[in-house]
Amino acid sequence: PYSGPSADEILQKRKEYLSPSMFYFYKKPLNVVDGKMQYLFDDSGRRYLDAFGGIATVCCGHCHPDVVEAIVKQMNRIQHSTILYLNHAIAEFAEALASKLPGDLKVVFFTNSGTEANELAMMIARLYTGCHDIISLRNAYHGNAAGTMGATAQCNWKFNVVQSGVHHALNPDPYRGAFGSNGEMYAKDVQELIDFGTSGSVAGFISEAIQGVGGIIELAPGYLSAAYSSIKKAGGICIADEVQAGFARTGSHFWGFEAHGVVPDIVTMAKGIGNGIPLGAVVTTPEIAEVLTRRCYFNTFGGNPVCTSAGLAVLQVIERERLQENAHVVGSYLKERLIALKDKYEIIGDVRGRGLMLGVELVTDRQLKTPAKVEIMHVMEQMKDMGVLVGKGGFYGNVFRITPPLCFTKEDADFLVDVMDVTMSKI
Ligand code: PMP
């Protein structure tokens, strides 16, 4: 049993010593003290089904024994910087990771986070092309450091500091976008931004395949290939941000971009890559990677032996436990059940996503698509009280984000939907 400080004591310390910008879910925030696979346990020992842990990094399941063992083993042996000396863990994980990517994408730069990975990817694109302009999508989230905040395109995540050289294209959002599911129509905006907003040459384009923070928005079919082709014609580099959609989460594919039939020039990743360990990566081609030899470049802890040992264990678990297949089977089942719930409740405006990256958008008026901001808070709170944790996001904060660890079962899916059903019936 847990014998540490109470939630109130922690909250007090947090108020006094931690950034006032930190936020938490729920009126009374949960004091989470243990995790096991798809479950979290609070300080009273109460169990919660964690349908949002995936976004917070966990893909294999909380404290997956194989990943824990790999970390402890390496920690006991040697933990050091990634630079200066050789270590097998780093090289082996880089090789294993490269084998998961298509084409010539086989040079790996390790970082500690998704933000760092995208910062590096954008810099590489600028160095390689000699251009500065980058195109990203409205409603995107790519990080919160100087460069990536520029690419992020939701005012709630953008501070008023210089963010130069990023143009934000129309979001190919099948639910709220002007052109519905016609990806090619939205892609014309990318060409227009190049033609009317730049010299005609660009450094690149960055996008998620399914926007996570943005509210689980799957890019309209046909969009990415048309946008990539405009970017390539303008001499740019195409960057796929797989921080959320990567690592088997979408079920049908290992990477989100694969569902769109494109091959990026650079792929960035984080979160699921280390099952909770701080790790990120940029993977590109040998030719593009060459630009970083123009100066000294390093990252002290990016890809250190402990984190890369975890990374290798994660890839092995995904393979051994067939987590991609599970994401596909359980995710499809869960989506079907959520769609059935939409037939029952007017408040559900849209159910979308792929594999175990699903979104449920709540609206008070299906025609006007008015965001149900208050109602979603209520449902979320009630679901927590009944033992189910889901995430929330989207520009209006009215979309449930369901991104559980990939070991989620059909029984878990049933429990989640049943609990959502009960809470919605009481609105
Ligand atoms: N890209 C995407 C798609 C993300 O969702 C996030 C984090 N929410 C990031 C980048 C930034 O990752 P990190 O928080 O690890 O810096």
Automatic annotation (TrEMBL):
Pfam families: Aminotran_3 (PF00202). One of its GO terms (cellular component) is mitochondrion. Its EC number is 2.6.1.44. It comes from the Eukaryota. Gene3D superfamilies: Aspartate Aminotransferase, domain 1, Type I PLP-dependent aspartate aminotransferase-like (Major domain). Keywords: Photorespiration, Pyridoxal phosphate. It catalyses: glyoxylate + L-alanine = glycine + pyruvate. One of its GO terms (molecular function) is alanine-glyoxylate transaminase activity. GO terms for biological process: photorespiration. It is an enzyme of class 2 (transferase). Its cofactor is pyridoxal 5'-phosphate. Belongs to the class-III pyridoxal-phosphate-dependent aminotransferase family. This is alanine--glyoxylate transaminase.
